[in-house]
Amino acid sequence: MKNVTDSFVSLGHWPSAGSFGFNTDILATNPINLSVVLGVLIYFGKGVLNDLLDNRKQRILSTIQNSEELRRGAVEQLERAQARLRKVEIEADEYRKNGYSEIEREKVNLINATSDSLEQLENFKNETLHFEQQRAINQVRQRVFQQALQGALGTLNNCLNSELHFRTIRANIGILGAMEEITD
């Protein structure tokens, strides 16, 4: 038990504190502070993060449903185009004597236009999904960063007082002075 308290208590800095005091050595206390901050962030940020992810999931699902409706509309359009194609083919047989090549061109143009429309709709659906996923990821990153920053600032504001702040500044000035003497 004495070894544990010795790692947190620095009697060299606070001689009047007896066996209890604060360790102002930043290198020794940073892992503890970081683990506490991370623990608090994980504990309190988990619910908010889950809510954000659930909301994003619902938006993505609704986007997928909208894209599926657009795809169904395109399929219906394709079926109508195919029916029209069959009609054109019947007319082509009747008008074969008068201009087979003109009807063939119309058929190819119709197929190409329908194929292009379907390809554009599929590309739009894929781009929309990719955009929504990237936007969701960016929003979650931004939210987590904001919460981490707020938690860290709150912890710092609660833990630092002016006396401790001045002692830390004096210790750092002493370290910098010693480093300057070494370099001279």
The value of Rg in angstroms is: 35 Å
Distance between the termini: 43 Å
Share of residues in helices = over 70%
Major sheet details: none
Secondary-structure element series = HHHH
User: Structural class, from secondary structure content?
Assistant: mainly alpha
Mean of residue pLDDT?
80
The total of helices stands at 4
Sequence stretches where pLDDT stays below 50 over 5 or more residues: 1-17
Number of strands: 0
Categorize the overall geometry.
Answer: rod-shaped
Question: How large a portion of the residues is in β-strands, by DSSP E?
Answer: under 5%
Sum up the structure in keywords.
single chain; 184 residues; mainly alpha; 4 helices; disordered N terminus; CF(0); chloroplast; hydrogen ion transport; coiled coil
How are the secondary structure elements laid out?
Blueprint: H1 2-8, H2 26-94, H3 96-159, H4 162-183
Helix pairs in contact: 2-3
Membrane topology: Single-pass membrane protein
Organism: Eichhornia paniculata (Brazilian water hyacinth)
GO molecular function: proton-transporting ATP synthase activity, rotational mechanism
Structure description:
The protein is mostly helical. It is 88% helix and 0% strand. It has helices at 2-8, 26-94, 96-159, 162-183. It starts with a helix and ends with a helix. The model is unreliable at 1-17 (pLDDT under 50).
Question: Quick summary of this structure?
Answer:
The chain has 184 residues and is mainly α. It has helices spanning 2-8, 26-94, 96-159, 162-183.
